[in-house]
């Protein structure tokens, strides 16, 4: 898929400046809903094969930012973005971007588990088939592989053809992760993936995220400060659409350089 | 009055309303079936009708009703579902979309006799077809279309759990998402809407008086050539439906057994709608279970 992206935006490739360990380079990104600015000119680099956590109070723009990366904000007619999000030297916000191809490369898991009302197997094979994989043996392999990666295979291998809606909330969310992973994206966007889950399922999803970081670059929005400190390598703190601080997670949680960050982390507001 | 009493009164009132509705329904069914069932026989269902002689049947009317319903749905369902998908998935929110929605609502509330008169002008006079089955089916399509558009739009809008986002985020196109995720999820609601619309179409008389007409030519059920004048399948022949027949024997009929015939025909009409409803629901849930892999 990357070829389509590359062909379309060859001129935008900026090889000289690109560091190999950066997967997404965000520059002066502003996002508006109508006249209302939700994100104010933020810039940050997202590291490859690392977990980046986005924290901040509700309405601070972190989810809006996340959804702009795979262009899910396109679904909201009044939303509009300025600035750049560079991926492999290509600005993802460009008009000529094939969003369908982009979303294969940058997968997303949502806050509420949203499996399709199909069988467990079909939940995973659905997008694979659309991508042109029809051979039964390859599909079977991919289904097993992705379910294994999502730590769900052992629980569901005997009932792959029953409805995904019969799974528990935590299992459903891991199925959603499996179906995203099956597309072999390079970046995984997780929008509060465990906030709707019970503590045990939550722990499983967290374990999984740490596991997945070997193969993917992960950006996770979370309201849960412990979660951010447990699983992320870098943390970005958002407030009222501004990126207040972005640093190594240990630094943010032990010795933040901005006072607002410290206040938020210690629970004084938000 | 304290809130507990208010709560009890509310419960009682809603219980009463439900009781009244059920009682009316049961009363109506009991009356129509009680009067009509004894007049239904194989002979009644298989003899052609007559305007002058007693002992006639409703064979052709029954066939015409199903045939017009079938043709109407063949035209109205694709158009209506397509329109509903457009409204739910493609139309950008704004003044024009709201205007279209208002038009659809106005169309849905048009009295059927007005649609009948419009059908007379359009499908009978302007086209020069005269009274035809296809003219009746087109008039019923107008009658039916807004309901199906609305039902489809509502069904799409009430799909639960962001399945659309889920599918798009996997790198699947909008159209593929509509075909393989949204339409299957919306299918049971759309089917229910189509069934309700079918019931209305099956029992509709006013819109057909001036479009499909009050007569049926002598039909030969062995003739399956749709272009032959005596073939039941010919869509350019006039056709009196069951509902129209009930109206016409009561107002114009000079047959001696008017009361028996219309009671029998009414019972057949109700039974047909009932069977149609129940079987369609059963089929719908079967298909839904197959699509969603639930047991």
From TrEMBL, chain A:
Q: Where is the ABC transporter domain?
A: 24-265
Q: Which domain of life is it from?
A: Bacteria
Q: In Gene Ontology terms, what is one molecular function of this protein?
A: ATP binding
Cite the Pfam families for this sequence: ABC_tran
Biological-process GO terms, alphabetical: phosphate ion transmembrane transport
Q: Which UniProt keywords apply?
A: ATP-binding, Nucleotide-binding, Transport
Entry GO terms, CC: membrane
Please identify the protein, giving its name as recorded.
Answer: Phosphate ABC transporter ATP-binding protein
Q: Species name for this entry?
A: Mesobacillus subterraneus
What lineage is this protein's organism placed in? Answer: Bacteria, Bacillati, Bacillota, Bacilli, Bacillales
TrEMBL record, chain B:
Q: Does the keyword Transmembrane apply?
A: yes
ABC transmembrane type-1 domain boundaries: 62-280
> What's the superkingdom here?
Bacteria
Q: Which GO terms describe its cellular component?
A: plasma membrane
Q: Where in the cell is it found?
A: Cell membrane
What are the TM regions of this chain, as residue ranges? 12-33, 66-87, 99-123, 129-149, 181-202, 263-280
A GO molecular function assigned to this protein is: phosphate transmembrane transporter activity
Q: Which GO terms describe its biological process?
A: phosphate ion transmembrane transport
PROSITE patterns named in the record: ABC_TM1
- Asked if the keyword Ribosomal protein belongs to this entry, the reply reads no
- Keyword annotations of the record: Cell membrane, Membrane, Transmembrane, Transmembrane helix, Transport
Coarsely, its chief localization is membrane
Topological relation to the membrane, as annotated: Multi-pass membrane protein
Question: Pfam families annotated for this entry?
Answer: BPD_transp_1 (PF00528)
NCBIfam families reported in the protein's UniProt record: 3a0107s02c
The UniProt similarity line reads: Belongs to the binding-protein-dependent transport system permease family. CysTW subfamily.
Q: What is this protein called?
A: Phosphate transport system permease protein PstA
């Amino acid at each position: 898929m990357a070829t389509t992206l590359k062909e379309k935006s060859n001129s935008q490739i900026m090889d000289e400046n690109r560091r190999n360990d950066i997967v997404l380079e965000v520059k002066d990104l502003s996002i508006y809903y109508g006249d209302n600015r939700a994100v104010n000119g933020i810039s940050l680099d997202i590291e490859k094969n690392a977990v980046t956590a986005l924290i901040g109070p509700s309405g601070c723009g972190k989810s809006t930012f996340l959804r702009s990366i795979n262009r899910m904000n396109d679904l909201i007619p009044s939303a509009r973005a300025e600035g750049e999000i560079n991926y492999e030297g290509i600005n993802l916000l460009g008009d000529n971007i094939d969003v369908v191809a982009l979303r294969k490369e940058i997968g997303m898991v949502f806050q509420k588990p949203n499996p399709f009302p199909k069988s467990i197997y079909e939940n995973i094979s659905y997008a694979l088939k659309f991508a042109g994989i029809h051979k039964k043996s390859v599909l079977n392999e991919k289904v097993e592989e992705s379910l294994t990666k999502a730590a769900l295979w052992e629980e569901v291998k005997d009932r792959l053809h029953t409805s995904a809606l019969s799974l528990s909330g935590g299992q459903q969310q891991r199925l959603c992760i499996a179906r995203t992973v099956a597309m072999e994206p390079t970046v995984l966007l997780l929008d509060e993936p465990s906030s709707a889950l019970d503590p045990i399922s939550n722990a499983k999803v967290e374990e999984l995220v740490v596991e997945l970081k070997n193969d993917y670059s992960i950006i996770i929005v979370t309201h849960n400060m412990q979660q951010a400190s447990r699983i992320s390598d870098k943390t970005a703190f958002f407030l009222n659409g501004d990126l207040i601080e972005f640093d190594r997670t240990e630094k943010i949680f032990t010795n933040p350089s901005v006072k607002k960050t410290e206040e938020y982390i210690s629970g004084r507001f938000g | 009055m304290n809130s507990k009493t208010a709560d009890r009164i509310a419960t009682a009132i809603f219980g009463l309303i439900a009781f009244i509705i059920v009682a009316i329904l049961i009363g109506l069914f009991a009356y129509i079936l009680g009067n009509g069932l004894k007049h239904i026989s194989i002979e009644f269902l298989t003899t052609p009708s007559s305007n002058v002689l007693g002992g006639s049947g409703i064979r052709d009317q029954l066939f015409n009703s199903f045939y017009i319903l079938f043709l109407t749905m063949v035209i109205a369902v694709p158009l209506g579902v397509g329109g509903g998908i457009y409204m739910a998935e493609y139309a950008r929110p704004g003044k024009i979309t709201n205007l279209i929605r208002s038009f659809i609502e106005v169309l849905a509330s048009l009295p059927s006799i007005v649609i009948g008169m419009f059908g007379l002008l359009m499908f009978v006079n302007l086209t020069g077809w005269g009274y035809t089955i296809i003219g009746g089916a087109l008039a019923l399509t107008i009658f039916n279309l807004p309901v199906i558009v609305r039902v489809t739009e509502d069904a799409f809008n009430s799909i639960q759990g962001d399945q659309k986002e889920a599918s798009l985020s996997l790198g699947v196109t909008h159209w593929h998402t509509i075909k393989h995720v949204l339409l299957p999820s919306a299918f049971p609601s759309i089917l229910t809407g189509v069934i309700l619309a079918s019931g209305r179409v099956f029992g509709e008389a006013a819109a057909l008086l001036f479009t499909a007409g009050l007569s049926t030519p002598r039909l030969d059920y062995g003739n399956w050539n749709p272009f032959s004048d005596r073939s039941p399948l010919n869509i350019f022949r006039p056709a009196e439906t069951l509902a129209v027949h009930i109206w016409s024997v009561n107002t114009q009929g000079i047959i001696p057994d008017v009361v028996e015939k219309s009671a029998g025909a009414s019972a057949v009409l109700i039974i047909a709608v009932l069977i149609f409803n129940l079987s369609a629901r059963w089929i719908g849930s079967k298909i839904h279970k197959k699509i969603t892999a639930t047991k």
